Please model this.
Amino acid sequence: MKRSIGTIFEDKSAALLICASIFISVLCPVAGSSEMDDSNEKVTHCGGHDGGFNRQTTINNNRKSEIRDYCLANDALGAYDNTVSRANHLKNMVKIQSGKFAIGTNDPIFVADGEGPKQQIYLDSFYMDEMEVSNSDFARFIAATGYRTEAEKFGDSFVFESLLGGNVKTSIPLVAAQAPWWVQIKNASWYRPEGLDSDITHRMNHPVVHVSWNDAVAYCEWLGKRLPTEAEWEVACRGGLSDRLYPWGNKFVPNGRYRANTWQGDFPTNNTKEDGYESTSPVTEFPRNKYGLRNMIGNVWEWTFDWWTVDVGNRGGPTNPVGPPDGTNKVKKGGSYLCHKSYCFRYRCAARSQNTPDTTAGNLGFRCALSGTR
Ligand SMILES: [Ca+2]
Ligand SMILES: [Ca+2]
Model:
């Protein structure tokens, strides 16, 4: 599988973009444990199977202490009890009852994305995380398992240029021709979102970013959960409303109050931050929809389970659709803090975009789901 920087960019077509020449074919399972105690030891988190990923990966000498600091900063380490954690996580989910729902739209903004037509579907009941997975959540996962994310293995990830510190801007090995505001930053990862001179100490309640689809699956599985299907995600986004653009209705700023973190001003040169945030916001920020969910649109894009197709007829049918059986890209939903109406009007429930499962970027995160019968 070719690692693609694909459509992390807030644009309209993957065809406009170039790809990184790094290859990987491993879907890493959750690690066993205690890898954090093995500084500089070759990573064996993938069950000893390198599967074509031929770069020797080592654990950074400082990683153990750094992650521990982050966990302690949020009182997230301590005597970790996985059973308690699972119970706590269920408390932070909402149950969406089974029923008939409408997804997609007959008024698509980006027809080529397969936003339409509107479809009638049936879903079994399911649980959905109330919020995007936070750095604090993810730190607990790392502390408990030693899991090593794909961005850490690759040694880099993609960051929006204006968020970078001056020391990091000096070397830019890869830029997307049609989206030069994205830069590939060495050592950028979930706990160093803008590279070596950044950290998440003061962002523990912000959504984790620079996590691939594979990383997201590993996290959810660790908690006995899974990624939501695209259909589940969109139903959750709509919050019980019909034919509305946003989780709360059709007016983006009702009564002058922002309900999501996107881009105001002129993209990509001037972010006026009228919603209060240039980059990510806390996962607890902005009002809930009628299902009790926050930030379904905006803040960070969210991975879903489904392989990407624009063909509505190939998304698994009207009952519990799970997308096509295979593909090269996974569906992501909701848009991000970088979405502006003039450029990426994808902060709508019906909107959708795609990336390869190993893609990571500073505006791409996730939340987990769980089947309701559990
Ligand atoms: Ca914003
Ligand atoms: Ca979101």
